[in-house]
Amino acid sequence: MEEIMKKIGFIGIGNMGGAILAGYASSGKAEGKELMAFDMDKALCERTAADIQGLVICESGRALCETADTVILGVKPQVIESVLREIKEAYKADKTVISMAAGIDIGLIERYLGRDARIIRIMPNTPAKVGEGMIAMCRNGNVDDVLFDEATEIFSGIGRAEHVEESLIDCVIGVSGSSPAYTYMYIEALISAAVENGMDEEKARVFAAQSVLGAAKMVLESDETVEQPRINVCSPNGTTIEAVNKLFANGFMDDVKEGFQAAVDRSIEMGKEKR
Fold it and tell me: How far is the C-alpha of 19 from the C-alpha of 28, rounded, in Å?
């Protein structure tokens, strides 16, 4: 079957958009595709073009939209409406727009591009840059299964892509969109504690990060409940149970859940601000 998405353009290649572009370009799945980008930061465009062979830098978002058949919006929620105003005259219904802006629902994008617009909404996270992203995807009624599957294939090249209802996107922000930041904090705390106990910082970084990576892999590859691996390593009167009991006593689980909820609540709030 002939591919629909052949000319893929990125408007906004900062932290998240840049991570997805870099991850996709290095995944091997971009072979045969035309990749293009636009960002207001010209120096960033130059650096990105130097890193990604064949990347075409466009002079404006509108120029990119005129050329691309797939437009991926990597801009911040605060500026997405100005971008939509810029590209709407260049948009045609045979193009697909993919948005990753938190708090911006499909309905808002339709108000600018029309009810016949083909729109996919995603919620990625920054580990996409190293091919280990978690990407949630939803669509409007104009995106058929063939097109959605092709878009899914693109994002599967930078991690794991899962289809969800749009009503779950705020929850996704808490559990995966924002959660790498919480995980970095945990790793940071482990490194700091290791240094305080005499370990070299670079070595502590490897020990902490590899432990988190391995634990995550065990969760994904096991049919057991998430609690079971923790229970398995907590021998009575041992070192691990002492640490786990201290974390429970200090409210570790509740702190994580409260942080999660704060991210979700802010996403809901941002959506209301745009309605």
Answer: 15
Question: What is the CATH T-level fold of the domain 7-166, as seen in this structure?
Answer: Rossmann fold (3.40.50)
Looking at the chain, the number of H-run helices and the number of E-run strands are 12, 8
7-28 pLDDT, tens digit per residue, is 999 999 998 899 889 888 988 8
Distance, CA of 240 to CA of 150 (rounded, Å): 45
Where do we find the tokens 């941002």? 270
The CATH number of 177-271, from 3.60.40.10, 1.10.3730.10, 2.110.10.10, 3.40.50.10420, is 1.10.3730.10
Collapsed DSSP state (helix, strand, coil) of residue 98 = strand
- Asked if residue 14 lies in contact with residue 74, where contact means CB atoms within 8 angstroms, the answer is yes
E strand segments, the chain = 7-11, 34-38, 56-57, 70-73, 96-99, 118-123, 133-139, 159-163
Which three-class secondary structure state does DSSP give residue 122?
strand
Q: Where are the domains of the chain?
A: 7-166, 177-271
Whole-prediction pTM value? 0.89
205-253: pLDDT as tens digits: 999 999 999 999 999 999 999 999 999 999 999 999 999 999 999 999 9
| d(C-alpha 86, C-alpha 250), whole Å | 50
Q: Which has the closest alpha carbon to 165: 134, 125, 136?
A: 136
Q: Work out the number of other CB atoms within 10 angstroms of the CB of residue 2.
A: 4
The 3-class secondary structure across 150-163, one letter per residue, is HHHHHHHCCEEEEE
| Cβ atoms 21, 54 nearer than 8 A | no
